[in-house]
Design a protein that fits this description.
Chains: A alpha/beta, B alpha/beta, C alpha/beta, D alpha+beta
Strand order of the largest sheet of chain C: 2-1-3-4-5
Low-confidence stretches of chain B: 1-16
Structural class of chain B: alpha/beta
Order of helices and strands of chain B: HEHEHEHEH
Oligomer: heterotetramer
CATH topology of chain B: Rossmann fold
Low-confidence stretches of chain C: none
Largest sheet of chain B: 4 strands, parallel
Distance between the termini of chain B: 39 Å
Strand content of chain C: 5-15%
Order of helices and strands of chain C: HEEHEHEHHEHHHHHH
CATH class of chain B: Alpha Beta
Shape of chain B: globular
Number of domains of chain B: 1
Number of domains of chain C: 2
Largest sheet of chain C: 5 strands, mixed
Chain lengths: 660, 160, 301, 340
């Protein structure tokens, strides 16, 4: 038999002025199973909590109902108090008679009646509460970071510096990501590679970091503390440990004119065996088999092999699957730029001198194809007039995406500034919709571009770009003056919008984390849990979550790292015990529960007889993954799965208690 | 305020103090998710908004947990109106609970209507944690709607 | 009784399957308790294959047996199915109740089966007025999936268009809430809670039905109006988007509740809402196992 | 009371039925509904369908309702008020007449009465049975599913009927078996004419096709026989046989209620359900449908007769006609008899 205690809080006059708390207490005392009913001015105060604890002890209570403020206010307070008297924390239920009664109703009699109803409802619920033990999951104290851009690098370094082993997986032959492609960074104009390269080297040399470049995630299973990860290490055709990075191989490669450099975004060529850029980490080339003559022409060419001193070219190398077990994962998959082909009127791809923002970065970069001298891709001449077009694809729900790509205002201002610095007497024009320069030093930076560097900012969109007599004619609107403008430019730079890295949706599915309709990974809570994904143990960093600049990416990498270090600071991970459990006797393994589970928490379980024959297959809940949302219960026709804390018979009793 | 007037009128009519569950003083049961609508209702409270006191809220973790069986049970126990409310599409705390449930509700609602249940008595809404005002509006409008319905108990859940 | 060509072909397939050991059991039809009835038969020996037969009186959906534990024990099973029944096999595969590897589908081309109550009264002619409504809307006279196909010798069912299948659905849709209620109250009042509708349904495969769960007892056990309505409502809800329309529930109902008016209505609604029809594709995901962000939302405030 | 004999013309029979209805009798008769015939309340003679052999369902529900309230309670504050369900039915249907049923259905009442009065006297059953007046009509043309003759009755048996009508040309002979029937005849004596037994046409010589005793003797010895598992593989456990059966009387006691009121009820139940005899442990001694159908056969043809000297079957054939999978109990009983 239940021994329930009901505690009615006055909350000073907050409840007591509208709800007759004594009446609620009297009604509570009449309910079978209620052995104690008291009211008190402030239940959450120390004396209030002490009285709660005393009654639990004296009356040997099996359950507690507080008719008080919202459970979101003090549920935890009262649970903690109950635990101190040896009561299971989940044996505490709250009837919300403040936020949902006394503060929203005025007729005292009716408000009191409602408060009594809510109190009765929770008494019926608490009577059916079962003890819930939080689940403890052992932790493999090793982390996986997916993506070797600045946010991934930051996360990996922070975790590694905290003394935890890290596996860093990068799809490209080198880490560095997008940041290493950039020239100078706003608003301080420090050189990107100067600040990035040391970090990349540090990653490579860190005793706690295992680096897999030119590798991809093949499969992820398991749950927080115990993820099983399969990493596909693609055949590089170069034995990493022997390679010295001397460069003899790529110098010997006959394929040096035909292959466009991905790193330089088609603005230069590379060989078949190559390092993407001179500061690559690791400085080990990759043999691109899709263009290599050895592979295309039946093994005849082996010039690189011959040139290699340590003989580390291995044409027979195979893709390798590496299995790792990790306790936590950071997804820092980064971004791509939108294809701007839908803006046919801008002539991207048609006119060589219409380039994307990232291409312009390469043209500015001292390590770029022009060694930092701004030259037109078409004829190599230095442009005197450049038109920058912002919001190409961004903030354009019709053709592109509705969101703002956030970094374009700033990098365009930087481009215009650097152009002015590098080509004296030049002129730049910037078409913009709004200028968004909201971080420290940003507004001043843009002002500087306009005022000191003479960039002309035109508020409006560009309608058409066409070539005429060696010039690019840019037609657009200046909405501030109301005039149509036409500018004859030598080059046009399109500030194309940012989109999630291709394939990040697939990775998200593999990880069992959610992503929005654009493909950006979504946070567990956009404000309060911005570093966590929807799945426990998987964290997010960088542009994979949405447009952001370098400092923000670094912060998010550090945030993910600190979350993981925090997680790993305990020996076990505690999961709230309010999770689902299966009635194996009645489960018929239709797996609708599995279909609706957003957390991959349901798996198949085979029940075997003593001879090892499978006698039955049932659904099984993985406690490390289950969040207790209860969607599985709704999906189960026979109600053979139930979620602790909100059990079917509790809900039934609650509804029943409201019978009129 | 509008809703105050409603309450005062009732007292003048001499309606019993407690919510009787009759057609003129209907019992409404609301099944709400913990993360959005429950918080929205709390916000209405912290903002001291006033609304009809005919509603009784039952908190669930997610709309994904709110089973059509609950709706049936609520009607069986004499509720004159049942509200199901949770996070807006895309905002589900558990990513997709509301999407899965939406399919079920759409179908279940059709079935109820076909079997002769007055669909005015079943309401669904998306109310976020910041929409205290929407909570108040939904509850008040629903209460008024239920009160305006003819006093009939002819539905398949009622014993004749 | 002389074998028809159909029967011979069917018997040959079954015999071969049993002889080769590809299956351990053939579920089929044989002659029943009167000349107008067929009944299920379970063949385990090749020499018994000659018992198999098929006709326009083969009303049963034999897929219902695939959910029985006693039948499952046979492992590899061959089953004789009409187009409608075959959809049940597909749905069972979709819902993991059956492995495609364990089933050999002997598809029977079918141009309609005669309503059993008419056949019992002596009706022998297949026509649009004597067959079930499901036959009139049937799109799967040839099953959508089969390992063997036995062609029919019966002439194609000719439809004049004068007989409107499930015509009551439109009529009911047009009624007011009160009138609908009155209609169903009367129908459900007849229910005796024998649960034959459930047992006859190939897709009601729960080992413990929700109505048998008593902690809590969501569905009242009484066989009075509220209890009956709850049962019928939840039965229909659990089959919405899953029912393949074989009509066995209605045929089994001893008190003639027009259950197919509910099942068919829900099948139509689910198709209109989500574009899904049950049992057509073993690789399709069941309609309530998935969602779309753009699902119907108009009913939600 | 010794049997008494009367004559009534077809016209007068119609008048009789219409008059008792006028005099507030509740007349339950086979009546057409939903394309079939069921027992139901009629408001005039014409609504009765006396041409069909048997209604689809038996009239068991007038003896054992599909749901019966045993008691109800209501709680206000700390007070609880309990109301006995029997109060609701006492004397409530003294004027209820089952008209136009067949001898098999009529035979079911006294057979069931035995189990409801064996150790515990079931007042609910007795109250209903006591008040029921049964006027049956002898069968002229039983169908292939009928086997009342094998079940110790016959198409012309008066066992269980208060009045049995036997058609003869355009009149009926009424065999009155007891006070209940006699009172009714006397109340409308202008319509009946007393006659003697020798005037009543003798019963035809109804042939049996198997001996039920042999069936029983097979069941006595062959509990584990393979027949049950093999033959009833085709049983889907729908329970239609038990629900349409006039003698099956299993019931299930359930409680319903909330914090304010509630009741204890009994509902029809069936030995064909998967949860029949399911133990709390999860074990069920009758795990297959073969086990369960065997239970039905055992109960009908062995156990009941050993205990009550009557078979729990009147041979109406409803279970066979209504079985969705065409299991014919007459054929089964005959098979068993042949194997004995």
């Amino acid at each position: 038999m239940s021994r329930i205690g009901v505690f009615v809080c006055w909350c000073g006059s907050n409840i007591a002025s509208t709800v007759d708390v004594e009446k609620v207490r009297e009604e509570a005392a009449k309910i079978p199973g209620v052995v104690s009913a008291v009211d008190y001015k402030y239940m959450c105060s120390d004396p209030g909590q002490n009285s709660l604890r005393n009654v639990i002890k004296e009356k040997n209570l099996t359950g507690v109902v507080l008719a008080a403020c919202s459970p979101h206010m003090h549920e935890n307070t009262f649970r903690k108090a109950a635990v101190k008297e040896g009561l299971n924390p989940y044996f505490v239920e709250i009837a919300n008679i403040r936020e949902q009664v006394s503060w929203v109703h005025e007729d005292k009699e009716r408000a009191t009646a409602k408060a009594v109803d809510l109190m009765k409802m929770m008494v019926e619920k608490v009577k059916r509460d079962k003890p819930i033990e939080d689940v403890r999951v052992p932790l493999n104290k090793k982390a996986l970071v997916i993506g070797g851009g600045i946010s991934g690098i930051q996360a990996a370094l922070d975790i590694a510096n905290g003394g935890v082993e890290v596996i860093l997986v990068e799809k490209e032959p080198s880490i560095g990501g997008r940041m290493i492609q950039l020239d100078e960074t706003f608003p301080t104009l420090d050189c990107s590679s100067c600040i990035m390269t040391p970090k990349m080297v540090e990653v490579n040399q860190h005793p706690n970091i295992k680096l897999y470049t030119y590798s991809e995630i093949e499969d992820v299973s398991g749950y927080i503390g115990n993820f099983k990860v399969k990493i596909k290490k693609k055949a590089r055709s170069v034995v990493e440990k022997d390679c010295t990075g001397c460069g003899e191989c790529w110098n010997a490669c006959p394929m040096h004119k035909n292959v466009k450099s991905e790193f330089n975004i088609n603005l230069s060529e590379r060989t078949a065996i190559y390092v993407p850029f001179p500061q690559a980490v690791p400085l080990v080339p990759v043999l691109d088999r899709s263009v290599c003559l050895h592979f295309k022409k039946g093994g005849k060419c082996q010039k690189c092999f011959d040139a290699c001193g340590p003989k580390c070219i291995d044409f027979s190398m195979q893709d390798e699957i590496i299995e790792e077990t990790v306790g936590a994962i950071v997804a820092a998959t980064g971004y791509d730029l939108m294809e701007t082909s839908m803006y046919g009127e801008y002539g991207y791809g048609k006119y060589k001198d219409v380039v994307s923002g990232l291409q312009f970065e390469r043209l500015l970069s001292a390590s770029g194809p022009t060694e930092g001298v701004i030259k037109r891709p078409s004829d190599g001449k230095t442009p005197q007039t450049i038109v920058f077009v912002q919001c190409v694809g961004s903030r354009d729900p019709e053709k592109g995406v509705p969101y703002c790509s956030k970094v374009c205002c700033m990098y365009t201002a930087k481009h215009a500034k650097l152009f002015a610095h590098k080509v004296h007497g030049s002129q730049s024009y910037v078409f913009y919709i709004d200028i968004r320069a909201t971080s420290k030093g940003y507004e001043e930076f843009v002002r500087g571009t306009m005022e000191q560097d003479g960039a002309v900012y035109l508020r409006g969109r560009v309608s058409k770009i066409y070539e005429d007599n060696g010039k690019l004619i840019v037609k657009g609107a200046d909405t501030l003056s109301g005039n149509q403008v036409e500018i004859a430019a030598d080059m046009v730079v399109l500030a194309t919008g940012v989109i999630p890295k291709k394939g990040s949706d697939k990775l998200a599915q593999m990880l069992g984390i959610s992503y929005d309709k654009y493909g950006f990974l979504t946070e567990s809570h956009p404000k309060l849990r911005p570093a966590e994904s929807s799945t426990a143990g998987i964290f997010l960093a960088g542009m994979a979550q949405g447009p952001r600049d370098i400092p923000e990416s670094v912060v998010s990498g550090s945030a993910a790292a600190s979350k993981i270090l925090g997680l790993f600071s305990k020996s076990e991970y505690e999961v709230e015990g309010t999770i689902s459990s299966v009635n194996e006797a009645t489960c018929v393994a239709c797996f609708y529960c599995q279909r609706v589970c957003a957390y991959n928490a349901i798996s198949r379980k085979e029940i075997k007889d003593r001879n090892g024959n499978v006698v039955k297959v049932v659904a099984n809940v993985n406690p490390g993954l289950c969040t207790g949302c209860g969607a599985c219960v709704n999906a189960c026709f026979s109600k053979s799965i139930d979620v602790k804390g909100f059990m079917d018979d509790q809900i039934y009793a609650e509804i029943k208690s409201l019978a009129v | 305020m509008e809703d105050m007037k409603v309450e005062k009128n009732e007292q003048k009519d001499g309606t019993a103090a407690a919510n009787t569950g009759s057609q003129s003083d209907p019992r409404l049961i609301a099944f709400v998710c913990n993360w959005c609508t429950y918080n929205g209702a709390d916000l209405a409270g912290t903002s001291r908004m006033k609304y009809s006191d005919n509603v009784r809220v039952i908190k669930l973790p997610c709309t994904g947990r709110i089973d059509p069986l609950f709706i049936v049970e609520a009607f069986k126990k004499g509720a004159k109106g049942v509200l199901v409310s949770g996070c807006h599409p895309g905002d589900c705390h558990y990513t997709s609970g509301n999407y899965h449930s939406r399919r079920k509700y759409a179908t279940f609602r059709d079935l109820l209507g076909y079997l002769g249940v007055d669909l005015n008595r079943v309401e669904f809404s998306w109310i976020s944690a910041s929409e205290g005002n929407k909570w108040v509006a939904v509850i008040n409008e629903f209460t008024d709607k239920i009160k305006s319905l003819p006093d009939k108990t002819t539905d398949i859940f009622t014993k004749k | 009784m002389a074998n028809t060509k159909t029967d011979e072909k069917l018997q040959k397939i079954a015999k071969d399957l049993l002889e080769s050991g590809e299956v351990n059991l053939i579920i089929g039809y044989t002659k029943g308790s009167n000349p107008q009835r067929m009944r299920p038969v379970f063949i385990t020996k090749p020499e018994e294959a000659e018992k198999l037969s098929f006709s326009h009186n083969a009303v049963q959906d034999l897929a219902v047996f695939l959910k029985k534990q006693e039948v499952k024990k046979f492992g590899k099973i061959g089953i004789t199915v009409k187009g409608c029944d075959e959809k049940a096999v597909n749905a069972l595969i979709q819902e993991y109740q059956l492995s495609r590897d364990n089933i050999k589908i002997i598809g029977m081309q079918c141009n309609g089966v005669i309503k059993q109550n008419l056949a019992d009264k002596g009706e022998t002619k297949v026509s649009e007025t004597t067959v079930y409504d499901k036959c009139l809307i049937c799109q799967e006279h040839t099953p959508v999936l089969y390992d063997f196909l036995v062609e029919t010798e019966e002439p194609e069912l000719s439809l004049s268009g004068n007989v409107k299948p499930y015509a009551e659905i439109e009529k009911l849709d047009a009624l007011s809430t009160e009138e609908k209620n009155a209609y169903w109250a009367k129908e459900f009042d007849k229910c005796i809670k024998c649960y034959a509708c459930r047992q006859a349904c190939p897709l009601c495969f729960c080992s413990r039905c929700i109505v048998e769960k008593n902690m809590p007892q969501w569905i009242d056990t009484n066989s009075e109006e509220p209890g009956n309505a709850q049962w019928n409502l939840i039965r229909a809800y659990h089959l919405s988007g899953r029912c393949i329309g074989c009509g066995e529930c209605e045929r089994a109902c001893p008190v003639n509740i027009p259950l197919m008016l509910i099942n068919e209505k829900m099948a139509r609604d689910v198709y209109n809402l989500f574009g899904y029809k049950s049992g057509l594709d073993i690789n399709a995901k069941p309609v309530f196992g998935v969602f779309s962000e753009s699902d119907f939302n108009d009913f939600i405030k | 009371m010794e049997e008494k004999y009367f004559e009534i013309s077809s016209d007068n029979l119609k008048k009789f039925v219409d008059r008792i209805i006028t005099d507030n009798y509740e007349v339950i008769a086979p009546t057409d509904k939903d394309g079939d015939t069921f027992y139901g309340k009629i408001s005039k003679f014409e609504e009765a369908n006396l041409d069909i052999l048997l209604p689809k369902m038996s009239y068991k529900e007038y003896l054992l309702p599909k749901t019966e309230t045993l008691f109800e309670y209501s709680i206000s504050g700390v007070d609880t008020e309990v109301k006995d369900g029997l109060q609701g039915i006492t004397g409530a249907n003294e004027k209820r007449v089952i008209f136009g049923g067949r001898p098999c259905d009529a035979g079911a009442g006294p057979i069931m009465e035995k189990v409801f009065n064996w150790d515990y006297k079931d007042e609910f059953f007795n109250e209903r049975f006591k008040n029921l007046t049964i006027i049956s009509i002898a069968c002229e043309k039983p169908d292939n599913y009928c086997f009342c003759t094998e079940m110790q009755l016959s198409p012309e048996s008066s066992y269980g009927s208060d009045i049995l009508l036997k058609k003869s040309g355009d009149k009926y002979f009424a065999i009155v078996t007891g006070e209940k029937g006699l009172n009714l005849v006397k109340a409308y004596s202008d319509l009946f004419a007393e006659t003697t037994k020798d005037k009543v046409p003798a019963d035809k010589d109804w042939k049996k096709i198997f001996e039920i005793e042999k069936t029983k003797s097979f069941l006595d010895k062959n509990f584990e026989h393979n027949y049950f598992q093999e033959r009833f593989l085709s049983c889907i456990g729908c329970g239609v046989c038990t629900y349409t059966c006039p003698t099956c009387h299993c019931f299930d006691i359930q409680d319903e209620g909330n914090l304010k009121e509630g009741r204890r009820i009994r509902n029809w139940d069936s030995c064909q359900f998967g949860i029949f005899t399911l133990h709390t442990s999860g074990h069920n001694p009758r795990v297959t449908q073969g086990d369960r159908y065997r239970q039905r056969l055992m109960h009908k043809f062995k156990i009941y007769s050993e205990k009550f000297d009557k078979y729990l079957c009147v041979g109406c054939g409803r279970c066979s006609r209504n079985c969705p999978e065409d299991i014919d109990i007459k054929e089964v009983a005959k098979n068993l008899a042949e194997m004995a």
